[in-house]
Amino acid sequence: MALKVELVTPSRRLFAVEADSVTFTGTEGEMTVLPGHIALITAMDPGPLSIKSASGTETYAVGVGTAQVDNDHVVLLAESAEPLAEIDISRAEKALAEAQRAMRDKSFYDETFAETQAALGRATARIQLAKR
Predict the structure, then answer these.
(1) Most buried pick, 3, 34, 70, 91, via CB within 10 A?
(2) Rounded to whole angstroms, how far apart are CA atoms 67 and 118?
(3) What is the pLDDT of residue 94?
(4) Confidence of residue 34 (pLDDT cuts 50, 70, 90)
């Protein structure tokens, strides 16, 4: 038995594959979904996404989003996703520095706070994943 896993961002559908397991970062921590998992919908935090199948493991850095699991079908809706092989560490480090600088100048009530916080999470996830 296998999972059908889909990864979708606002700009494109990255893939729909069959996998043995999928692991992502939820708001309560790392979560792994295996065949037969109970149905659920949960929020995703920025972090690594690993899809394991007979052909190996694919890893992505994903931003905030939502994961839906139902009848061995996993749909991951992420605001961003980048394959490990395409992560540019120097660009991610620049983005992290810019987001950290911007966060110092914002209050929680600033209309762009959430956007800046998401940029900070994306950059951090990319750097951590690339340095593994």
Answers:
(1) 3
(2) 17
(3) 86
(4) very high
| Separation between Cα atoms, residue 78 and residue 119, nearest integer Å | 13
Amino acid letter for position 71: N
What CATH number should be reported for the domain whose range is 3-84? 2.60.15.10
* The amino acid at 35: P
pLDDT average, residue stretch 123-129: 80
At 8, list the tokens.
């979708």
Structure tokens at 24: 């992502």
Exposed/middle/buried for 26, CB within 10 Å: 0-12, 13-18, 19+?
Answer: middle
Q: Give the start-to-end residue ranges of the domains of the chain.
A: 3-84, 88-130
